[in-house]
Write a structure and sequence with these properties.
The protein has helices at residues 56-60, 83-88, 90-104, 125-136, 138-143, 210-225, 250-261, 316-328, 341-352, 358-366, 371-382, 385-388, 427-445, 487-504, 557-573; strands at residues 145-149, 153-158, 168-173, 200-202, 234-239, 268-278, 282-291, 293-302, 394-402, 412-421, 447-451, 454-457, 465-471, 510-518, 534-541, 545-546, 554-556. With 580 residues, the chain is an alpha/beta fold. Among the domains are: 83-270 and 546-573, 3-Layer(aba) Sandwich (Aminopeptidase); 293-332 and 393-471, Alpha-Beta Plaits (2-Layer Sandwich). Strands 1, 2, 3, 5, 6, 7, 14 and 15 form an eight-stranded mixed beta sheet that branches. Strand 6 (268-278) and strand 7 (282-291) form a beta hairpin. The longest helix has 19 residues, at 427-445. One of its GO terms (biological process) is lipid metabolic process. Keywords: Hydrolase, Metal-binding, Protease, Zinc.
Length: 580
Amino acid sequence: MDPEKQQLRAHQMPDFEAQIPKAPEPNWIKRGLVAAVFGMALFKMSHISREYYGSRSDILGFKPIEGKCPSQPKLVPQGYSNLDFILHDDDFAKGELKRFQGAIQVPTQSYDDLGPVGEDDRWDIFYNFSSYLETAYPQVHKHMTVEKVNTHGLIFTWEGSDSSLGPQLIMAHQDVVPVNKETAKQWTHPPYSGHFDGKYVWGRGSVDTKNSLIGSLSAAELLLEQGFKPKRTHVFSYGFDEEISGPNGAKNMAKFLVDKHGEKSFFSVVDEGSLVVEEDNYAMLIAATGEKGYADIQISVSAPGGHSSMPPPHTGIGIAAQIINELEDTPYRPELTPENPIFYTMQCVATHDKSISPKLKSLIQRAGKDRWANRKLVEILYGNPKYRDLIRTTQAIDLVTGGVKANALPETTVFVTNHRIAIEHKVEDVQKKATGNAINIAKKNGFSVTAFGKEIIPEDKDSKGSIEVGFFGAPLEVAPRAPTSGPTWDLVMGTAMHVFRDAVFPESKDVFAAPGIMTANTDTRHYWKLCDAIYRFNPVRETAAFGIHTVDEHIEYQAHLETIAYFYELVRNSGGENQR
């Protein structure tokens, strides 16, 4: 995952108290406990000051729809099943443990300041990793075509027998977040030891994402050993700089695949993403069918310098502070529309979670056709930190610099605001809001404004200074949404239903699939031209994975075996009928 991706359990339903708001109807009363779904007291919308109301739902009006949880039966491959062997055979487990540990022991760290491949020798560790894979997976390297893109990007192609079937793409990344030298001693076991304590495998990358990389290759190796021949071509794509957004790896690899196969040529894509959420009475298999957009906006304030003993009413830093205050005092309005996969996540919870109150269940189910119910549900979700950022565009001031000396007025002050753009918004909406915030402050202080190359308030002889608004790096629009019905969803999540329903969870637990959304971006940001059906799904129980991007990253080894089982069955299921 990229450096900002800290929401590993973003869809987890924590236990907490919440009140169901009182409806206008006389037969509605306030509720006390809402078990297992929402985790804190109702956050009243009146507490949110000066919200930004530029949402499309207000512009277009409320469009009632009948929201339903996407039903998904399990998809079982024809013929024999090897789930019991993969999950419970001691000899198989011992061999796979060595493979997994060996991968973790290669410290494939990627750094923000890496130079070009071939010039910066810190990339050379990836030679070690590809050599290790060649030794660990002899059948894969014997029977698949291996292509290297920009030296370290690994693409394995397993040709299928039916060329009319679009290829299936399975993704992961080789690189890991660097271990902070200052906290390395805090690890229970050395970060690149791959230590196994009898239950957990410890080490950087054990969760993110050498688990899925090794899991998918091990599944392929086992199938090849058994003489399996797929109908559908399978491509395994492993980038090497996802943690720094993939400019050297995935960006070039995606272009390579588009050039080779053509645009929209792949059947579906499976990459890292949401996990399997466990509650007392159900397990929700979440595949993120979309990602929020991304934009960093830089605002520069230029003002005359001079001696600090004779300051103006507001220095350049003061003007910048006013703009920052204006930005933060006008947050984006939260909203929940059917465009957002979280809308359907909630429908699935209402359908399957027997512990929630009847009133809350009704509130969720009415949210697509009742404006009042929708608003009240938004209030509840906004009051829960795990949901708040999934239903709004976020803005965070992350960088600021200005001034060079304590007794000299700052001539230039610059700050950067990071935005994660909600499904209902576009990059253009973020541009307009940031520009509007800057204009409001400029007018009060007599500053000129230029925004994204266009002069908004011209500079003249009376101008006290200037404000410039622009992008800090390239923005990214909201990702296209993958289907939540049809052959691609049936394959990806039907296989997950089969593995987790038949082999992982007890019969007493209700198991179901649901769509979700990523607040951050995976390497799939570069693959939009290749396929519309992109699913970000980690076949890992959220109760079995810990420490992503921090001290003591580790995973339950049984969960790693479950990952192998998922990819094994995914490949076997991929040549079924009605899959084109």
